[in-house]
Amino acid sequence: MRLGRDYTNCLVFDYLSEAEKKAFKEGKLDIGSMNAIAIHKAKLDVTRQIEVTREIGFGHIELDADLPNPYIALSGEERAKIKRVAEYNDITLSLHLPYSYVGGSVCCMQESDRTVALELHKKCIEFASDVGAKYVNMHPGSVPFYHAIGKYKERTHRALVASLVELADFASKHNVALHLENNVAFDNVYSEIGDCVLAIEDARQQGADVYFNLDIGHWFTRANFGKEIPSAPEKVMEVLPKELLKEVHLNDYVPDKKMFHPPLHLEWGLLKKENLRRYSEIVKRKGVEVVVLETALKNEQQVLDRRNLLKAESQYVREIFGA
């Protein structure tokens, strides 16, 4: 099993101009604006992500193709370089498919909209295949709250299953394993594990080779909608059939603050060290191939101390997982 990272905003500061860095340090530029200015550049520099991954002792990177998405515009030569550098450094890759704007229409009952979303996803899957990625990961899409009930929900389910079948076939032909990841509860649909597994099983009955990427931090968002989080939340992994698991996402959540992806070693959220130890035991027993951390920097101090924070969190997780 490999440990990996989706770097989210952890490397973005390095791609600001000197004037922008100064503005950030003076409190004139917030983290959201920092991301808007430079996250495209950070995503594009895959070689740097590979270097950092080697430095922290991990073996996998999940590239993020949500907006802004620099990857589908890359030339064949640029894609070949990414593949070559990753293989030379023994770093495996996966790709997170787009999930906002157009990408969020994979469960849309309107065929014209769903078709556009699938075409975007297919372009991203082609990129993933070209760089040698082993897995691609998609969200189930989102709907307005008034489409999350009754007959609307049934039509949404049929649309998602149709998307899974088509995309899984396309991914298989490109030697990539398609995963469905559970939404956050704020997306109105497919935040519950049972709903996701049902969609996957329905797609599998039609011959689709599709897997489940449980994002445990996403599942924690149910707390903001009055749903229970057990005292040992990591045990939710136990209900998952091992044949559905290849890649999973590991991140935390702070329900009271609605804070996504805080650094794990700070123990701000629901996952303490003992929870992570049990989580590690479960995913190993289930045969999970890669665990991807999705930590995000949450304040100015963390941004400015990003290198030490990444090293400290990585060492903490490696020790827990025995990696």
Explain what the structure shows.
The protein has one domain: Alpha-Beta Barrel (TIM Barrel), CATH 3.20.20. It is 43% helix and 12% strand. It has 11 helices and 10 strands. Helix 6 (150-173) packs across helix 7 (193-204). The longest helix has 24 residues, at 150-173. The chain starts with a strand and ends with a helix. The mean pLDDT is 97.
How big a fraction of the residues is strand? Answer: 5-15%
Radius of gyration: 19 Å
The largest sheet, given as strand count, sense and whether it forms a barrel, is: 8 strands, parallel
CATH topology name? TIM Barrel
Strand order of the largest sheet: 6-5-4-3-2-1-10-7
Proper CATH architecture: Alpha-Beta Barrel
Mean pLDDT over the residues: 97
Low-pLDDT segments: none
Counting DSSP E segments of at least 2 residues, the number of strands comes to 10
- CATH homology superfamily name: Divalent-metal-dependent TIM barrel enzymes
- Euclidean distance between termini CA atoms: 9 Å
Which helices and strands appear, and what pairs or packs with what?
Blueprint: E1 2-5, H1 18-25, H2 31-44, H3 46-55, E2 60-64, H4 76-88, E3 92-96, H5 111-130, E4 135-138, H6 150-173, E5 177-181, H7 193-204, E6 210-213, H8 216-220, E7 247-250, E8 253-254, E9 259-260, H9 273-285, E10 290-293, H10 300-304, H11 306-321
Parallel strand pairs: 1-2, 1-10, 2-3, 3-4, 4-5, 5-6, 7-10
Antiparallel strand pairs: 8-9
